[in-house]
Amino acid sequence: MPHADSAMIPAGLDKEAFWSHVHEQLGYLLAGQRDWVTNLANASSLIYNSLLAFPEFADGDRMVNWCGFYIDSALFPAPKLISPKDPQAPQPARLLLGPFCGKPACQLIHVSPGKARGVCADAYCQKKTLLVKDVDAYPGHIACDGETKSEVVCPLLLKLPNEESERAIGVLDLDCLALGGFDEVDSRGLERIAKLVVDACDW
Ligand code: SME
């Protein structure tokens, strides 16, 4: 099957079945590849294009307008050919824009514990999915696109064998043009997908 066909959505699916279908297609798409840049690029494209092929999110007023990842800056590879950075230098906690689909977005999100920081940084720090029905009512929300009305952000959680609890390594973010564009079914679907993506990559 051509890769692009993985974003085709069969007619008549309800939302639970939609997310299960996307999860299954993503599993096929990521199989045999462990590079996180490559996998997150294909994951953002698959999720975004699948949402746009699903009637609930394809309609103009309710359209999903952004789907992508922010990743802990410590995981970005140090440049090797030009300007090598000092691996010992202390790095401030921040999330850097990773692979995404949609219009350009803010490149860097600072993570400052104890402050209103926006949805992505909060989901990352709290290690839990945040469902925001109205972004304008969310303290510290970062407006990358003034047209966005609602948002759901799911942390990427990695469990290392030598650590007791999961650590957050980034987030998966979906934006919508409608108020209350996402619900708990979407949160759960996204959480399953985030786990699949984390498990499919070497970090
Ligand atoms: N709204 C996010 C920033 C990322 S963009 O939506 C793509 C936030 O408040 O963290």
TrEMBL record:
GO terms for molecular function: L-methionine-(R)-S-oxide reductase activity. It comes from the Eukaryota. Coiled coil: none annotated. InterPro entries: FRMsr_CS, GAF-like_dom_sf, Phosphatase_reg/MetRdx. SUPFAM superfamilies: GAF domain-like. GO terms for cellular component: cytosol. This is GAF domain nucleotide-binding protein. It comes from Polyporus arcularius HHB13444.
